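ok so i was messing around last nite and threw this chain in just to see what happens. nothing serious, just curious
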Amino acid sequence: MLGEVAGAPEPRPENSRIALLRQMIRIRRFEERCVRLYSAERIRGFLHLYIGEEAIAAGLLSEIGPADAVVSTYREHGHALARGIPMAALMAEMFGRASGCSGGRGGSMHLFDAGRRFYGGNAIVAGGLPVAVGLALADALRERPVVTVCLFGDGAMAEGEFHECVNLAALWRLPVLFACENNRYAMGTALAREHAVTDLALRAASYGLVSWAVDGMDAEAVAEATRRAVTAIRAGGGPCFLELRSYRFRAHSLYDADKYRQKSEIEDWKTQDPIPRLSSALIASGELDEPGLAELERAAAAELDAAIVAAEAAAVEPIADLTRHVYAEPS
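result:
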């Protein structure tokens, strides 16, 4: 069932390309600042960076509505920002403060916002897939016209949960968009050392899903593919699968020495960096000029500065509340 989804997409708003660039810049600068804060031990725990993959979050999440659900992975800062969770709430969570989106209890890997239907942040590889299928089943039983977007990495496709969940979603024709962020490495394992069939879209198609691969370094291509998929799902076509072919420029996490790939490979992929790729196109087309690009950078920096000030000023959770949400509340 590899192929096109019927129906031409509606034209995108005129300023949508600049909006995609703005979102990618926000994500990139957030990640870069987190590196500095982590190195200064102002952020603790684990830190999995999204640098290089911003086009996926910006493009995909620009094409779904506020009633749709999103299930993410442990590399989810960019997803959360693109979903609309305020940067201040995300930074407070990174600092472990009570004003964080998960009350300071989740940290980098467990960002959550039920009001925005952002259901994690999940530290378990493939752990979000059953959650996504459950959410979609609940929405289908309630006859709600919404889609659940499930983001996961290429490593998740080697887990049993992937096969179980995709099979059930296809059997029950659930409204799920399975979005695989194929960055070529499951932690430190290269794609070809993990999967006998490296065409992940083809593997998903074997379950009867309409599936196709997308240039995950191109925010516009991601947005276009998402629109096609979501349109088909909303029309009752059942689940779809996107293989978003991308690359992370940084190691798996800041604990990772990154010795499993050549530096020349990383530099080659940086020539496809989605941010200069889109900004150059916008400048060439006359939609944006250098002062306009500088203003996008200034706005992101100001937002970050304010988020850090707010996070550092926020309170930590009182010790008396540490067992809340662990045991049942007394009646």
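not much to say yet. Strands lie at 69-71, 148-153, 176-182, 185-186, 189-190, 210-215, 240-245.
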